[in-house]
Amino acid sequence: MALRLINSAVLRQLAAQLPKSAQMGSVAGVHTLDKIGKREIVGYGWNGTACYADRVDYPLPAVRFREANNEINALRNKEKGDWKKLSPQEIKALYRASFCQTIAEVQAPTGEWKMHLGVALIFSAAAIWVAVLMNLFGELSFRISVKTRSLLIPSLAVYDDLPVTFDEEHQKAQLKRIIDLEINPVTGLTSKWDYENNKWKN
């Protein structure tokens, strides 16, 4: 009984303070009593404002989910008596009047990961296509028309030419130099070279 008196006193203070704070333009004025309508304030909530949010870490919101109507009021009067007289449908109706979702519904997977994966794959595919097209069309020429004059931008190269060391002649010369200098003779490439017979070991 004393708890109900304290709770009603707190609700009266909250009701008296919220319109004042709304006029002053404070953050608390965002969630005023006119925003929640006729929904009953039943607790502190997750941040002390009169708002509803389904959260697992704060399972008891500050206000009920639905406004009370005649049917819900009749069920609330009935629940004050013996709960065994309530049918499962009435218990569910009472629960849904206070909460939008059950904890299991809040924690249920939404499938949102599929959208994120799809967007990531689309961007990956676009990046691969850009790389392929850059390799295929490495050198492009663009003709830009500016007030009936055409300007030719010659050979806009995406990639530079390969260095001369990539041709076969230079690679053979590099291999000969590695063998002549006996680079890494224990486990490296030159360990497989027979220096006495000047040929690769079998």
Quick overview of this protein structure:
The protein has 202 residues and is mainly alpha-helical.
Features:
202 residues; mainly alpha; two-stranded antiparallel sheet; 4 strands; rod-shaped
Structure report:
It is a single chain. By secondary structure, the chain is mostly helical. The protein has helices spanning 2-24, 33-36, 70-79, 88-98, 103-107, 112-136, 168-180, and strands spanning 139-146, 149-157, 193-194, 199-200. Strand 3 (193-194) and strand 4 form a beta hairpin. The longest helix is centred in the middle third of the chain and has 25 residues, at 112-136. It is rod-shaped, with a radius of gyration of 39 Å.
Total of DSSP H or I helical runs spanning 4+ residues:
7
Biggest sheet character: 2 strands, antiparallel
Mean of the pLDDT scores?
Answer: 79
Q: Would you report the number of β strands? A: 4
Low-confidence stretches: 19-27, 141-146
Q: How large is the radius of gyration?
A: 39 Å
Tell me the overall shape: rod-shaped
**What is the chain-wise order of helices and strands?**
HHHHHHEEHEE
CA-CA gap between termini: 99 Å
Enumerate the strands of the largest sheet in spatial order, edge to edge or round the barrel.
Answer: 1-2
Assign the structural class, choosing from mainly alpha, mainly beta, alpha/beta, alpha+beta, or little secondary structure.
Answer: mainly alpha
Helix content: 40-55%
Fold blueprint:
Layout: H1 2-24, H2 33-36, H3 70-79, H4 88-98, H5 103-107, H6 112-136, E1 139-146, E2 149-157, H7 168-180, E3 193-194, E4 199-200
Antiparallel strand pairs: 1-2, 3-4
